[in-house]
Amino acid sequence: MTASLDHHSRADAARLDDQRTVSISPLVAPSVVRTEFAPDDVASATVRTGRGAAVDVLNGTDDRLLVVVGPCSVHDPVAAMDYARRLAAKADEVRDDLLVVMRVYFEKPRTTLGWKGLLNDPHLDGTFDINTGLRIGRKLLLDIAGLGLPTACEFLDPIIPQYIADLTTYGAIGARTAASQVHRQLSSALSMPVGIKNGTDGDVQVAVDGTRAAAASHVFPGTDLDGQAALIRTTGNPDCHVILRGGTDGPNYDAGTVADTNARLAKAGLPERVVIDASHGNSRKDHNKQVDVVTDVAARIEGGEEGIVGLMLESFLEAGRQNLTLGHSDELEYGKSITDACIDWATTEAQLDRLAAAVVNRRAR
Ligand SMILES: O=C[C@H](O)[C@H](O)COP(=O)(O)O
Ligand SMILES: C=C(OP(=O)(O)O)C(=O)O
């Protein structure tokens, strides 16, 4: 546009623009980061096999439960790998009954303000070294895939998937972006199953609508692997589904809401299946209440309730949460969340055992 403007118009346009932009600097291209951290055969097989298994569980051709479990956010790659090694061993132990996928969440959608995740501020000090964050994040996904453990990410910024989506087995669209057309279009392009959360106010229809929109084909502006602006044309994603996460009015993991959600999905011509998030509005952000959710849902599953295909848990090495003071990450307690409170490792193992037993008991019915 600017090239066709005369000298006066260009000067005028410059005065109209960049009134609040402090600086614009280069972002490393996705292809560069992908080349630096390329998947080997083991990592590729983890993602390919994990995605296929997740689709089978969602479609009911695999009778296991999908369990997406891990920290609310990753802030320390060393602790994340420590957790991943334990989870990989546990996942192997329960593999006949559960498909375990580790939450490796790098992007945090904030209610107002706060640390926005490892990709945005990897040094936890407000320096926003995103070029390093993208490399740290991708390397972590690669290292976890190398353990044979599939990973899940929330996708928030529409540019980010080009850097990490190829290593991701399960994607999520959060409660704050479920209504966003940008995120629905993005979901329609993603090569993995994507769970779309109900709204923070508890509105389930927004997630049903999002699932329907993401199943359709779209054409939208995005970026290609070289970081160039590009037009993206998609097929639509048939593996999207609703995640019930509760809301400001309280929990929504009850059988009535599950049945109502599945009825809404059927009415929209979509598969009747939901994932239940034991945390967030369903635990009223009290990590201990996640155990109540698992206990209740496990009993219902083994009792024959249909339509629940998976659960999501927020879990880390240590229980609870701690506050981050930017620039003082050396003061943080190892293995404890700096965003939402999590259940600890021992409690996590017990919940996985309980869910595995529910699947065994359901089979025995
Ligand atoms: O899952 C994480 C949080 O619930 C979400 O990012 C919102 O966090 P906030 O309300 O602390 O900003
Ligand atoms: C931000 C998250 O959840 P929600 O969108 O449900 O608040 C999350 O799962 O990390």
From TrEMBL:
What does the entry list under GO cellular component? cytoplasm
State the UniProt keywords alphabetically. Amino-acid biosynthesis, Aromatic amino acid biosynthesis, Transferase
Which residues are in the DAHP synthetase I/KDSA domain? 56-350
Pfam families per record: DAHP_synth_1
Q: Which reaction does it catalyse?
A: D-erythrose 4-phosphate + phosphoenolpyruvate + H2O = 7-phospho-2-dehydro-3-deoxy-D-arabino-heptonate + phosphate
Q: In which pathway does it act?
A: Metabolic intermediate biosynthesis; chorismate biosynthesis; chorismate from D-erythrose 4-phosphate and phosphoenolpyruvate: step 1/7
Enzyme Commission number(s): 2.5.1.54
Q: Which GO terms describe its biological process?
A: amino acid biosynthetic process; aromatic amino acid family biosynthetic process; chorismate biosynthetic process
Q: Which residues form the signal peptide?
A: none
Molecular function terms in GO for this entry?
3-deoxy-7-phosphoheptulonate synthase activity
What is stated as this protein's family in its record?
A: Belongs to the class-I DAHP synthase family.
What function does this protein fulfil?
Stereospecific condensation of phosphoenolpyruvate (PEP) and D-erythrose-4-phosphate (E4P) giving rise to 3-deoxy-D-arabino-heptulosonate-7-phosphate (DAHP).
PANTHER family recorded for this chain? PHOSPHO-2-DEHYDRO-3-DEOXYHEPTONATE ALDOLASE DAHP SYNTHETASE (PTHR21225), PHOSPHO-2-DEHYDRO-3-DEOXYHEPTONATE ALDOLASE, TYROSINE-INHIBITED (PTHR21225:SF12)
**Name of the protein:** Phospho-2-dehydro-3-deoxyheptonate aldolase
Instruction: List the top taxonomic levels of the source.
Output: Bacteria, Bacillati, Actinomycetota, Actinomycetes, Mycobacteriales
